[in-house]
Amino acid sequence: MSATLLETPFDLTTAVKNLITENDEPVDNILSEKQQRLLVHALYESWTPLPEGELEEAGAPEAKQARPFWAAANVGIFSSVYTPGIAPDVFISLDVAAPSDLTATRSYFMWEYGKAPEAVLEIVSNRKGKELEGKRKDYAKMGAIYYVVYDPFGALEKELDGDRIRVYEVGFGKRFRRRDDHQLPELGLSLTLWTGFFEGSNGEWLRWCDAAGNLLLTGHERAEKLAAKLRELGIDPAQL
User: Fold this and answer.
1) Cα 108 to Cα 110: distance, rounded to the nearest angstrom
2) What span, in angstroms and rounded, lies between the C-alpha atoms of 23 and 87?
3) pTM for the whole thing?
4) Residue 176 forms beta bridges with which residues?
5) Is the N end or the C end of the chain the one with fewer CB atoms within 10 Å?
6) CA angle 52, 58, 63 (to 5 degrees)
7) How many degrees, rounded to 5, is the angle at CA 50 between CA 64 and CA 96?
8) If 0-12 CB within 10 Å is exposed, 13-18 middle and 19+ buried, where does residue 51 land?
9) How many CB atoms are located within 10 Å of the residue 135 CB?
10) 21: how many CB neighbours lie within 10 A of its CB?
11) What percent of the chain has a predicted confidence (pLDDT) above 70?
């Protein structure tokens, strides 16, 4: 149990221990699981969040500075000990970091971090998840700034007007309003569909882009880009 929780004026230790943080139900399909990993991996490999309260000009890396963040897939978020947790397929939370002792805290407890994640994302595989109904209201009430729905299988094609990516942004009364684009401007991120290989699988993937519209690369892609540059300079990467 974290020191923050133990120091709270209320003894929540027993309440937290009784929270259901895992239900052991294997509900994700193969594509969703791999897609979640791609989204989280690219963030940790290539993303530098914008400085707090500062808009970065595209192509101005000098405006960047180190800023902690926590990105995770299928980790429960609890707004209080009195309400059930909700586990988005992916979340991003700025100015916090995943606990160093991963055996001590199994979920994202908002009373410990003092805030909700800025962005949550759901990957739709059927209509049973209620991504456009209950979950959208839950995430708005929780305090997320952005809610992203991605529909790779076309389960909500009519409701999404044929657009398989929908980005919602919090507005008046903590209600989400649909954006006309796929931008998450307060994070300096956007989303796009990309066709290519990831972990040996060829297909269409949801990918992050930075403020300048560049793909956030995986570690493998970064290594390939560096190797290509070395070859242009007449250097064989295999000989290094």
Assistant:
1) 6
2) 11
3) 0.83
4) 170
5) C
6) 40
7) 115
8) middle
9) 17
10) 16
11) 82
